[in-house]
Amino acid sequence: MTTDFRTPALDALAKTIIPGEHFEFSAETARDRFFNDSRMLVVKQWVHNTFRTNPASMLEHMLGNLALTGTEDLLDLGCGNGFILEGLRPHLADGSITGLDIAPAVLDAARQRLHGTATPCTWIEGSADDLSSLGDDTFDRVMANYMIHYVPDLDRCFAGVRRVMRPGGIFQLTTDRTDRMLEMYQVHFTALRDMNAPEDLFKATPKGRLSLDNGTPQLRAHFEHVQVVTWQDQLRFTDPDPFMRFYEVGHNHCCASSEPDERLDDGFFRELRDRVRAQVTEAITTNGYFAVTKFTGSFLCR
Ligand SMILES: C[S@@+](CC[C@H](N)C(=O)[O-])C[C@H]1O[C@@H](n2cnc3c(N)ncnc32)[C@H](O)[C@@H]1O
Description:
binds S-adenosylmethionine, 7-stranded mixed beta sheet, alpha/beta, 7 strands, 11 helices, Rossmann fold, about 20% strand, about 300 residues
């Protein structure tokens, strides 16, 4: 089975669908709205794991990147509810874990998730661009997975990572290409267009701020070696319900419901969901499943 889901047809479609402008959200919005509980993360983690077709999981991708021997001190910036840390922990039996996150609710969920495990864990509430509480040369591995687009001062963050990382360490920054999950954006934008929705809702993922496509120069300013390791997957849904939870709760209707907007009421989102569901149901009837193709990967910085 191939794990290369990139096709000329998808690449061509991306050019017609993905807008040049992307959404932008502050760290405060992330803390107070998206991650004031674990709901959004739990839905995404469930869908990414349950509906994937790449037999190698994202965790295996990361284990390949991080080359852990078991004794490393690992810092996870924006650790969320500790889902990834839980998977990595057995590979750090004689090492340590430090999880940092700006949102106390998900940080607490991570603390509870790893409570009682033998690997020493430290939990820090704070922003990834202020690592002043951490000493020089303290960590062998630093990760920032799917969170860098929320960090206010990227240069300060990367300079901090460089400082706290020991010589020979690896900084893994995982993010997406802006045309990831193209099929979700296609049904979403089609529905928005049919509803004559406001033009400013037609924006790409907030990860456009530092994506797999544009991140290398920003990282090269701080790290001598920057390598990109890509990872693809395709989610396949044969029932519209799990996709609709992913779209509505996991992605706030492709960000249309991320922040309060008095132009858009409950009726607007009900109609939007109905129109998206109808397209997904039609794809399932025609093709047997609705596919959502992921183009993601990690920068490995040394
Ligand atoms: C999409 S989640 C990713 C969680 C985890 N890294 C994962 O991949 O499962 C983004 C996380 O970044 C956190 N976050 C947002 N802005 C942050 C900041 N400036 N500093 C630290 N964490 C931040 C959020 O609270 C949230 O837990």
